[in-house]
Amino acid sequence: MNKHLNLLYYSATDTTAQVVKAVADGMNSSVRENNITLPNERERDFVFGEEDLVIIGVPVYGGRVPAFLAEYFTRVKGNNTAAVFVVVYGNRNYDDALLELKDIFEKKGFIGVAGGAFVGEHSFTNKVGTGKPDQKDLELARRFGAEIKEKLSKINNKDLSNLPELFVKGNYPYKERKPMPAMLPETDELCTNCGLCAEICPVGAIDFNNYSNVDVKCISCCSCIKKCPAGAKSINSDLLKKITQGLIANFSTVKNEPELYI
Prior knowledge:
Helices cover 28% and strands 20% of the residues. It is α/β, with parallel strands linked by helices. The chain folds into two domains: 171 residues, 3-Layer(aba) Sandwich (Rossmann fold); 65 residues, Alpha-Beta Plaits, CATH 3.30.70. The chain has a six-stranded mixed β-sheet with strand order 2-1-3-4-5-10, with helices on both faces. A two-stranded antiparallel ribbon has the order 6-9. A two-stranded antiparallel sheet has the order 7-8. The radius of gyration is 19 Å and the shape is globular. The protein starts with a strand and ends with a strand.
């Protein structure tokens, strides 16, 4: 494969990062990593060319590409650029997210060569998608990467635009985004004021001067909860409890497997 391998991913709780890195490992090539999880990393405008291959990874929020990422991606441009689309969902359903991701980038000069949907442990509860992605999933992701490399090696000297259009599962119009009331994390007396929560917040919602102060722009990604070394963060919203109970009741015993398109 003669293309420069790039990763472009958002991963608040690290599951998407694990998957896209495993796909890249399967290509056995040097890689340029662009982690756009933090707000300052999304101040960049990315431009990729014909010599690039970009693995793009996002989590699924309500069956869609997260709205703030869909908006940011309008600033990412390609030029006949090969792309692999990856979504990671919390074991419920990825609905239209993979198709939406593909559509966003193919309108910006990218050409889809492969796509995949993987399961990650749900951000709201470790009882849904528990331990995902596991080693079996990551090994499959590596094999997927090797297959993509093999596919590209066969068309290396051909115009990518002559490839048949990549098919992925999903519907258009996409699933409607349902507005959700803010479900803000609270901070208890276990807080040591280490500041990690503010440093890792993907939308800059946590006040650096008062870690208990969370702005309503919070997207309830649960990064601060999962990564707090003192276990001092939690969301005590009745709505979240209801959603979580429904997820556990309906999806805790479901064994979804990765779905790959190449």
